[in-house]
Design a protein that fits this description.
This protein has helices spanning 18-39, 65-73, 106-109, 127-138, 158-164, 167-174, 193-197, 205-226, 242-250, 257-265, 267-270, 293-305, 322-328, 343-346, 349-366; strands at 4-7, 52-55, 76-83, 89-97, 100-104, 143-147, 176-180, 253-255, 276-279, 283-284, 311-316, 318-319, 332-335. The chain is of the alpha/beta class. Strand 3 (76-83) and strand 4 form a beta hairpin. The longest helix is centred in the N-terminal third of the chain and has 22 residues, at 18-39.
Length: 367
């Protein structure tokens, strides 16, 4: 296998970042290439000694969103003091590209910042998100790309709006917002923010009902103020209702995070002359085909494959329902963790990197 290879993997959550996964795959390819050269085996194309490898950091709007978009858009990183979801002072980062800010809400309102025993969505606030936005606005930002994944909150963005004070009205008039999220849930009800996501953030059954009632009340009051109600819009339930606050109060647009990033980097043009595209995630199964990042990558490649012999490989930590993934269009589906390795060992970052490189080297040897 030679020519041009594009590697565009999601993070292996809790183990490796998107960049680390990509680099481990590239390492495996280079190891194979070195072995081929050392053994004297003739390449498929003698005019091209080694493949061109391009690594693309990926994110669906959740974990790693800031890094992926900053890398793609060549932006600068801004570090500020802000509050986490329990109103504790932390250092948080956002990005700026010209007059556009890249906001990953998990930088302040993230669940990963809160100790498991402290998680309580009745208390958790999105205040820190408002602090990031105000800081960016004061620096001259007038466009926002906001990643809505990984929140500890279920406050419908009330904390964010309170942190802005009356300035939210000025921001509403002067700024535009694009939300990066794969969540399509409404704000309230059985499929809403509280019922679907709050239990993952520490809510019991009673708290879920209280949170849902609070969301309904806030939506009613907001609808009376504006004369319209966006609580039923797809994505309103994202990030504990932060999606609703952006849709209702700032007239935001919403897009699947992966699609937004792929557009920004010009992915369709980039893959036109590629021989192989490699994508992946921590664990792949039938749910991967329901809009997760590898499936988004697959759709773009399949459109391009209509006129090329391009291949697409799925390289994930673990794989279930492999045949369904092959039937969907992946040419190879690799589980990099050995079957006899326990999960804790497989999740060790250094072991995971080695497993990825070994799996890739073996697969290229058989290609």
């Amino acid at each position: 296998m030679n020519g041009k290879i594009i590697i565009a993997c999601d993070s292996y959550k809790g183990c490796l970042t998107s960049r680390e996964v990509n680099e481990a795959i590239a390492s495996g390819i280079k190891e194979w290439d070195s072995e081929e050269t050392a053994s004297g085996i003739e390449k498929l194309d003698s005019n091209e000694a080694s493949p061109e490898i391009i690594c693309l950091e990926m994110s669906d709007g959740g974990e790693g969103m800031l890094d992926a978009f900053l890398t793609a858009m060549k932006g600068e990183r801004v570090r500020i003091h802000a509050h986490d979801a329990l109103m504790r002072w932390i250092e948080a980062e956002y990005g700026i590209v010209n007059d556009t800010a890249i906001i990953e809400i998990a930088q302040t309102a993230g669940l990963a910042l809160i100790e498991p025993e402290q998680r309580n969505p009745l208390k958790a606030t999105s205040w820190g998100v408002g602090e990031m936005m105000m800081n960016a606005f004061r620096r001259g930002v007038r466009h926002f790309i906001v990643g809505l994944g990984g929140s500890a909150t279920s406050d419908c963005g009330i904390g964010m709006l309170k942190a802005m004070g009356d300035d939210w009205k000025k921001i509403r008039k002067e700024c535009t917002f694009m939300l990066a999220s794969d969540v399509t849930n409404p704000l309230c009800g059985e499929n809403g923010a509280a019922h679907v996501f709050a239990p993952q953030k520490g809510a019991d059954a009673e708290m879920v009902e209280m949170l849902d009632a609070r969301a309904r009340k806030f939506a009613e009051v907001s609808a009376k103020h504006f004369g319209y109600d966006r609580s039923e819009m797809p994505g309103a339930g994202a990030a504990g209702g932060l999606g609703y606050a952006f849709l209702q109060y700032f007239g935001a647009e919403i897009s699947a995070g992966a699609e937004l990033l792929l557009r920004e980097i010009g992915f369709d043009e980039m893959i036109q002359d590629a021989d192989l595209v490699i994508t992946g995630e921590g664990h792949s199964d039938r749910q991967t085909l329901m809009g997760k990042l590898p499936q988004r990558i697959l759709e773009h490649v399949l459109k391009n494959k209509a006129t090329t012999d391009q291949q697409i490989w799925l390289v994930s930590g673990g794989v279930s329902e492999k045949q369904a993934l092959l039937d969907a269009g992946f040419d190879q589906v690799l589980a990099v963790s050995p079957q006899n390795m326990d999960l804790e060992e497989a999740m060790n970052p250094e072991i995971a990197k080695r497993n990825i490189a070994n799996a890739i080297r073996g697969s290229f040897g058989n290609a």
